Amino acid sequence: MNAISKPELSDIDPDDIGHNTTSNPSFEQIVEARLSRRSLFKAGVGTATTAVFGGMALSACGGGGGSEPAPPPAPPAGINLSFNPVAKSLADVVAVPAGYTASVLYRLGDPIAGGVPAYANDGTDAADTYAQRGGDHFDGMHYFGLNATGQYDGNSSTRGLLVMNHEAITPAFLHPTGQTIVGGVRTVADEVLKEFYVHGVSVLEVNRSGAGAWSYNQTSTFNRRIHTLTETELSGPARGAPALVTKFSPNGTRTRGTVNNCAHGYTPWHTYLACEENWAGYFRRVTATDNPNRSAKEIASFTRYGVQGTGRELWATVTPDTADNLYGRWNAERLGTSTDGSDDFRNGPFTYGWCVEIDPLNPTSTPKKRTGMGRKAQEGAWLGPVVAGQPLVWYMGDDSQNEYLYKYVSTANWDPADATRGLAAGDKYLDSGKLFVARFNEDGSGTWLELAFGTNNITAAYAPYAFTNQADVLINARLAADAAGATRMDRPEWAGVNPANGEVYLTLTNNSSRTLDNTNAANPRFYDNTRTNGTVTRGNPNGHIIRLAEGTGGNTATAFRWDVYLFGSRANAPAASNISQLTANNDFSSPDGLWFSNATPGLLWLQTDDGAYTDVTNCMMLAAVPGRVGDGGARTVTNTNTAVTPNTTKTQATFVGAAPTEATLKRFLVGPKECEITGITESPDGTAIFVNIQHPGESTTPNFGTKTYGSYWPYGSDATVSASTDVEANRRRPRSATIVITKNGGGKVAV
Ligand code: FEO
Ligand code: CA
Ligand code: CA
Ligand code: CA
Prior knowledge:
Blueprint: H1 27-43, H2 47-61, E1 100-107, E2 138-145, E3 159-166, E4 181-182, E5 185-186, H3 189-198, E6 200-208, E7 214-216, E8 224-226, E9 231-235, E10 254-256, E11 261-266, E12 272-276, H4 287-290, H5 296-305, E13 355-358, E14 368-370, E15 382-383, E16 391-397, E17 405-413, H6 423-430, E18 433-440, E19 445-450, H7 470-475, H8 477-484, E20 492-497, E21 504-508, E22 527-530, E23 536-539, E24 544-550, E25 559-567, E26 591-596, E27 604-608, E28 620-624, E29 633-641, E30 648-656, E31 665-670, E32 676-682, E33 688-694, H9 718-723, H10 727-730, E34 737-743
Parallel strand pairs: 9-14
Antiparallel strand pairs: 1-34, 2-3, 3-6, 4-5, 6-7, 6-8, 9-10, 11-12, 12-13, 13-14, 15-16, 16-17, 17-18, 18-19, 19-25, 20-21, 21-24, 22-23, 24-25, 26-27, 27-28, 28-31, 29-30, 32-33, 33-34
Bound molecules: MU-OXO-diiron and calcium ion (CA) (3 copies).
């Protein structure tokens, strides 16, 4: 057979492509924001913070702000980053500080049930065995402690369930010689079936031995894979909406599977939220043939979410299809004759893009897609402070260029008695609530705009998309957020809530579409990222981290203050762009994972998914002890476009936190070649952290004859591959994996 590989090994992430053509925010909205900030200020934002806020606002209003020297940050008492920083590296290893041990725990293909053979890792493992093997591209992850009888125990650091996402695949390594594609068609159905299984979620029991080593229990009855074939329920306000009708579920209440689960969330009732990020790319919808059969509203929605193309893995091309449309359901074109979509999968894309709630403690439970939280390229959902008698809050990033930050606030107030009710508690708190989107005003204030039908311009009269009801708003949350006037951000990835003070942090990983003319206060930089070979990328290639302090009402507030906590940069970049004054020991680019420890409140972990600094270093993880919103001040950033002669320069007013020091931001880990570091959780006692190494070796086209791959992790390192005569042991296909990191001799990690 003539097997050719499609060019799956690309440096371009699907989320690098923006589908937001709005020009939010408008000038009118900024003026309106200044007015609303005044009323906010008058009402008081909390006595402890008003003075700082007032100072920021006065600087901004008094002529754009000056370059105020930032006071040194005061780390919360008791947090001392007690390790020596790890150097940047291009080596094919996981590097951690001296005195720490990193061990591989769970890899792509590892069996998670009795009788499943060990992974051959040469493309020959049978497709159906992948339903009980580790998936690919490990991502967001959470640890749920278990007691001896298998009940949830939030204090158990010897037995627990690791629940983790498998975002996507590196297809080249899954099959004998990559995907078999003939004339644009997947001709080996089993290859596609395997790909269906390696996406999704793992639930895995892990145990610590008396000596402190962690391992997973291959035969645990808790072990489970949820993947693109797993039946899921559509729950919440959009359940049964006409847009969710498919041949699989003519009443629009179910769909099959979950895909591109990137980051995650968890709930106070001990369930897991697997969030669907770049689902749009998996569907086949050729606009030239399908658009003539579609309404203007459908086309507006598909365009806004990027549902167009042949499908990134060409899943819909397999013939013949099965009776239950395993392959054909990835074809989102209007093919049937029904008026409601009950005879095809024209509405398939509307059943993806949700937060998917999974109860890891109940292995037979059906996952539920929580439509109340809105549909987007869902990076993750991060829980705010849990207070009895108060609503529950989740913060959610939509990761594409120029997308938004969202917040969900439950209608019900938290009752600790619901902590043992599993998905029934989810029905209570996640199916009824308010959805908001963030506007970051130019004066350092911010507004949560409610996405409710009939408010904030979200009406049938909205010209780009005539909304019909609240289900329509939730299914098309991006369009509703456009209408409301949200702020276009530099790709919102992970968020996290500092348990020390309730402040919300959000990584903005990078944005190549940022220009000298379209910066705003919250996305203030346009600069050169100059590689060591002299090539330059522009926009915001290194990303930044913004944070916000909620106003009156705490995490349910509708107003907030914000500043930029940290700007990614090369240490040797000019001061104009290395605003956070990063050094060789803490410089980084493209922050993505962001996670606050619970065992050590105030300790923050940052992880990178980078393509801009990769001439110098592989992706990494840093530990940080952040200060608080307002610990810096107003700043004017000077941006320069060197692509034109003469160079053009513009200033942008913004608000910047106190610069970190090497005591408050330090590199802890550097990963192997061509990987992303993403996903982190801990044992409740903080003595073990679990970290995911995603897609080592993904960028280099493999040569299977010579066994030449972009990475050999977790097998050989550069040194062992070149020195050893044992080729089989070292030159094996790289695998995504979870590692566990402990301090030699015990004790909390990093402090
Ligand atoms: Fe899958 Fe936005 O990272
Ligand atoms: Ca991510
Ligand atoms: Ca990313
Ligand atoms: Ca990724």
